[in-house]
Amino acid sequence: MSGQKLVGSERQEALSQIPQWKEAEGRDAIKRTFQFNDFKEAWAWMNKVADVADKDDHHPEWFNVYNKVDVLLATHTCNGVSDKDIKLAKTMDSFFQN
Amino acid sequence: MSGQKLVGSERQEALSQIPQWKEAEGRDAIKRTFQFNDFKEAWAWMNKVADVADKDDHHPEWFNVYNKVDVLLATHTCNGVSDKDIKLAKTMDSFFQN
User: Fold this and answer.
1) Domains, chain B, with CATH or none
2) ipTM rounded to 2 decimals
3) What is the pTM of this model?
């Protein structure tokens, strides 16, 4: 993981691998909303993600209410989206089975 | 827990028990920000809260980034603040040792 800001074709290629993620408005970041059947499912998913995030020392910005989790990913050291965000997005997608 | 909207002196008395919580702007809800030393501490606290919230079937709206957790509590069935929110706020406070 370089943690360097993704730009140009490299960025497009990376984003094409996570088609459910969208560019955030007003900020160089990516976002996705995950919806679960209930809080228990949402929380189980968040726990799995939290474990990976902390091991990789790369943390999401996320908002939860009941069965819904809004996630925003960015890399503050490069002030944009890096390969660390792409990796975490893929991890989140892979843990999401709905 | 009645889940009924707290108003008037009953509300003031209840809020006086949780002085670190403030009224939210533009919405009948209460809010507090919790700051921890790192993500691991924040997450451990959130896990303890999540367990109680799910047992009581009364869930917070919360936003986490790294060591910070912004919480908003309201009771949607009464469209305001009820004793359920006061109870959850006290639980959160009691788990917060910083």
Assistant:
1) 8-95 (3.30.1360.20)
2) 0.95
3) 0.96
